[in-house]
Every structure is written in C-alpha cells, then in structure tokens.
Amino acid sequence: MEYVKKYEYMLERQEIMEFCLHAWAESAKCRKWVWFRLMLILVLECILLPRVAVWIVVLIAAVLLISIVVSCVSIGKSITGCKWTLWVENGILKVDRGGSSEVPCRDIQLIRTTRRLLMLGYLQTAQRPAWFIVPLRVFADRQEQEWFLDRIRDPRPAEDSSIHAGSEDEGLRFAYTLDEVKWVRVQKGALGIMTSGTIGMRERLRLVLIWSFFAVLVMLSCIYLAAGHLSWQSVLFGVCVAALITARIFLRDPERALRRQIRTSAVRDRECGAWQITLSESGVCTRLPGGLRNDYPWETLAHLVETEEAFYIFHRDRKHYTLIAKESFQDWSQVSALHELCAQKGVKYVQGRKTHYLPDWAFLLIVVLFAALSMACLFLGIFWDHVQEMRDQVQGVSQGIYRPETFDPADYPDYVPLDEQVELLESFGLQVPEETVESVRGFMTEYGMQASIEGFPYTWLLTELGAPRYREDDWTTVEEYSKDVFWFDFEGLDISTDYVDILNGMLALAQGSCLDTVTDISEDTSKVNWEEGKGKVEVCLEWDGQPYHWVMDMQYDWIDGDVLGMLNALLVQGGSGKFFYAAGDNGQGAIVFFCTAEWAEDFGEATGLDLSNYRVWSVEQKQRVNMQEAAKRPR
To answer: Is the pTM of this model over 0.70?
Structure first.
C-alpha cells in the first residue's frame, strides 16, 4: 500500500514575497523572444539616437519595476491567509486551498528550489506557468524533501479514473470533446467576455490606462530628446501614436495568438480531448483530457456568462473560469437546472456581449492614413512657415524694418542675458565699451538677433569687441586693432594682404611680449594660381633680426587655419608664458586671445567656449615652420 503524507501549512509574509519575485522571473524567462526584440530595438536606438535610448532604458526599467510591484501585490492578495494542503497520491499531485486541484506528476515540468520554497509548476500556455508552493520548513529534513521530489519526478502509475468517479457528489454532469478549432473558438469567447466588459471593466480599464500613460510618456520623451522641445503639434502626434499602439495591443483579434498556443504540445495534450464538468451542492469539478482535475467551491465563483457556443462560470477574480460547451446539454431542462443551481449558490447570470476587434487590414489602413495626414501636416506647416517668412520679409523691406523673431529663452540651454555676458567678460579683464553694448543691443531689438546673441552667448559680443576698425573711406585698410581680443573671418577680403592683417591683429594683443621685435611682415603670392584658386602663399617676417617664413595652402579666398599657430612657434622659442588661443564664433570666423593656459581654461569653463592652443598643432604636427633653414637663407 502506498504511503501518503499530507502537508498542511499557511505561507508566511517572507515566503509570499519570495514566491512573487521568483514567479515573475520565471514568467519573464518564458518570453525570450520578447526580450530579444526589445534588446534589438534598444541596440538600434543606441546607434541612431543614443540620448533617446538612455531615456528609454530608464522608462523600461521603471515599467518593469511597476509591473513587478503590481504582480507581487496581486499574487500576494490571492494567496495571503490561505490554508494549503498538498500531497502526492497514485502519481497525482493533489492540492487543496479552498478549492482542490489534481495534476498528474508527469505534467509537472518546472521544479524550482529557492531559499525558502519548493515551487512546482506546469505551463498553462507557452508563456504562462501555474505554480504550487511548498515551504521547505514543512519537510523534516533534506532527506524527506528529496523523497517528496522523487515521487514528483518518478511517479507511480495512477489508478483508473473510475475509482475516483464515485467520490464525486451527484449533480449536473456535462461531457464534451474539444479539438484545436473548437478550443480556439471557446477561448476566444472567454477573452471576449473579459474584453467587452461583460463582467466589469475595472481591471482591464486600469491596465489600459496604465499602458496608455507609459506609451504617451515614452513617445513624448523620444520627441523631446530628438527635437529639443515640445510643441502642441508634437504632443498631439505623440498621443496619437501611443493611442494607435494601445489600440493595436488591446483591440487585436486574439485568434492568431490562440492558434499558436494550441500548437504547443503541452497545451494541446492537456486541453484537447474529452472534458467532464460536474456541478454539485459543494461546487464545480472539472476534469481535463491530460488528467488535470480542479474543484472549486461555490464561494469562489461569481458569474455565469452565456455566449452562442458555451456557458462560462467565472471566478471572483474575473480572470479564471470553467467552460461548459452547449453541445454537452441533452435538453432544455439541463439548461434550466444550470441556471437554477447557479442562482441558488449566488452566481449571477449575465448575457455575454459581442466583442468587436480591430482587423489587421483596418489597423494598417488607419496607420497609412495617419502617416499620410502627418506628412501632409508637416509639409503644410513648412509651406506656411515659408509663406509667413516671405510676408514678413516683404513687410520689413517696405517699412524699412525687420519683424523681430519669436524668442523663448527656454529653447536655448546655454542662454545668458547680454548684461550678464558683459559682466562676466569684464570680470576676466576684458574692456567692453558701452557703445559696443548698445550696438549689440540694437541688433537684438531692431533686427531680431536675440537668439544669436543671447541664445548662443559670448560669441557675438566677442566678435564685436575683436573686429578690426577699418577706415571709412577705404574698407580694405585697417585703422585700429583691439588690444583685448581679435576676430577675423576665414573667408578673406584680399588673400594677398589678409595674412599680414591677421598677424598684425594678433601682435596687437601681444604688446609687451617677446613679439615686439617682429617686423617686415609680408606675403609672397608668386606661387599662386589665381584662375584655379590653388597654390601656395609664403608668409615672411623678421624676429630679432632673423628671417622666418611659413608656407600656407591656398583655396580660393579662404585663409589657411595654420596662421593661428605661426606666432606661437616664436613664443615657444622666446620662452613666453602666454600663447595665442582661439575659439570659433558659431560661424566661419575665429576669436583670438593672448593669455596663459590657466586663464584660457578658466575662461572656457565660465563661457562654455572651446579655446584651443595652436602651438603643438602648428609646430609639431603640421611642421609648417622650418626656422633653422629660414635663418640661413640670404636676405
């Protein structure tokens, strides 16, 4: 005679929490393809839009954390305070926790041992395991635990089902057979009941709202990171895309997914075949083809829902149900008896609603129409902006003024007001005349240049400070250079004299240094092909009585950037503590300073400008200066 030991227990709080976490992890393992697709999307985003990808990772982590918490709370409520009785008999795992279940041990495919628990599970679907929980504390020792597991792994043959038939209470009996096609239809009917709100929409509505919230949050975050700002058009676009995704998930016909489920051997062997449902005074008993048996007391049941093909007795959680196919009824008297028994036991009858799904072709059509409408709005907006710009230009020309731009400091992360720019430059010893400040302010008010001046700070003001002052009657002759900062445009005015003007402007900054003895700056353009705009420009000067020369590349009227490092080569030889540093002007010019490395670093950190030292670039990398040979050349 087989020895049977029953284990009775109630799960403690720590055990419930441990089970919830491990159950979620095991469920996640069953969705490998989902994780693979998600990782593929993230990799592509990291390549194309890295800033967006980082934010998406943060949002996904938040969603996973919330899903874990929601799952743990939901599972914890369902098993807290339940008294479990579990044992193995005749190759069948039997469990009683308010309702009883019988599962053939051969169907127990998942056996997991955690710190406090033994988890025994089988796959309800390919991606959803069902678990029975046994605290390790119920076993006297490790030997008893292994004895119990051996009975699960190597079960004894079960007795004939006829032996158990007499143990069931007399009542209404229904027997029917499900093949793959019928199973898909009845399962689709059950999902339709939950989707349509026949037995309440609270849980599903909450799920839709949570999903929609995170979908909108993800879309708006991606748009903001990609565009740098949000407008009402972009918000509307993000909400519409999130709505389409939500509709695709929750309004999609589940038939295709159900067909994939029933093709898996574990589901097909357990679900397809002869079903037997018994309704008695004590509750509802279900026998599935694979030998699985479940007994549910009436207290756990809440709704009897009728559809065209079946009756569904739903549990109070509105997720689980017992199926009775209408083909199993012999006459109308059984239907009446079913209604009467359910009414006596407090199970409410509800007529099932017809569920409407969004066909694939309809969803594709909506996506195409939405994409076409979005493109049309985009091009219409571009065209309208162009029309507005042309109209403003016409009005500005006719009135002698330009319409100021629409400027929002929030759109420019580096925004600094003009007065603060002046204050910072003066704190670094730069002289900012009042007339220069008023001139720059006039550009903002009269010509709408606030974005260029305050949105991208310091460059415009420094350009005004460093620009040479030309003679009014001759715009090619420099009258005065600034002694604090020097600016020039790489697109020259006259390539035959531009290098001389630039070097003179830099020397004006270095007054009092070893460069005061620089004389006779000149250019040799004899090797220039003026028609093709190519060739070499030789720049010559004398320093301490010695001749030096540099060879510059010519590209039409563009100045070779190596000019910025020429004088630094002399400063290195002269042992100077200051060198020439330069920053871009957000255009095609250079802003030049003569300062120490410490000053350049502090100024760059304060203004956000990248000041580069051209000493190493010019002397060591470009090797444009051959001062020893130049000194030996006859004058």
So the answer is: no
